[in-house]
Amino acid sequence: MPVWAHTKLVRKKDKKLQKDIQYVDKEASFKWNKRSTIFKMLEKVLETHEMCSNTNGHCLISHLLNSMGLAHIAYHPIQGLTPGERQLVNIACALVLQPKLVILDDLLSGLDLSVQSQVLNILSHIKKKRAITYLFISDNLNASYYISDQVAVMYKGRIVEKGTVSQIYEEPIHSYTQALMSTVPSIYKRERIVLKGAPPSSSCPSNGCPFYRRCPFAQEACKSRQPLLREIRSGQFVSCHLHA
Ligand code: SF4
To answer: Which of 209, 223, 225 has most ligand 1 atoms within 8 Å of its beta carbon, as the pocket-test mutant?
Structure first.
């Protein structure tokens, strides 16, 4: 294959990948042209990705705004939107491209509780209608429980446990996950676990388990050997020497 044909193919693949995987965070709205309307902005997103003729594009946008409860503000300028509406428009900009995966990064922080549940309901409604996967990154345990099928718990940048939402919230195995879930008494029906100390600083990396200093079950080996993530129950993976 000549080099130019190969390059063209790679660019085509890149474009498809950019469309299929969308990233949404709460900062996205700062890049918008504040005088544009929501409808115009979504048209621009489609144009940029060379998607849809005018008629199809209009149908796609109208349908999406309807399903997200945003049709009534479709022709409002962006500058007048509330924080919750801005967040929904952020999500609409991703969804209009009909991606397969949407990474939702700390989307709910700063929104009040009623707006958070509105955003979650819309995301969940769309998930039921489309073949779409969300990667929902959040420290909001109630929201993660509501929106997720699978959960991965991270401590200092490492996954310490992963499994189905009921495995992680109702029967956590790792001591950090147990402490975390004990802060959600409506789901985890056991005693509250209060951890001592603070997470280690990233400037002092250790060879051992990153949870060593705070773990009530720490042993000597935990100081120097990092545990691997292993499947302990069907579909439930844990990184801990006690469960090796
Ligand atoms: S490896 Fe050791 S320190 Fe880490 S969670 Fe397990 S018992 Fe605790």
So the answer is: 209
**Could you tell me the distance, in angstroms and rounded to a whole number, from the CA of residue 178 to the centre of ligand 1?**
12
Task: For residue range 170-216, list pLDDT tens digits in order.
Answer: 999 999 999 999 999 888 888 899 998 888 776 666 789 999 999 99
Q: How far apart are CA 230 and CA 244, in angstroms?
A: 7
The residue length of the chain stands at 244
Residues 165/149, Cβ–Cβ less than 8 Å: yes
Domains identified in the chain and CATH numbers: 3-147 (3.40.50.300), 150-238 (no CATH)
**pLDDT tens column, 70-104:** 999 999 998 888 888 988 999 999 999 999 999 99
pTM value is 0.86
Q: Which residue has the tokens 């700390």?
A: 106
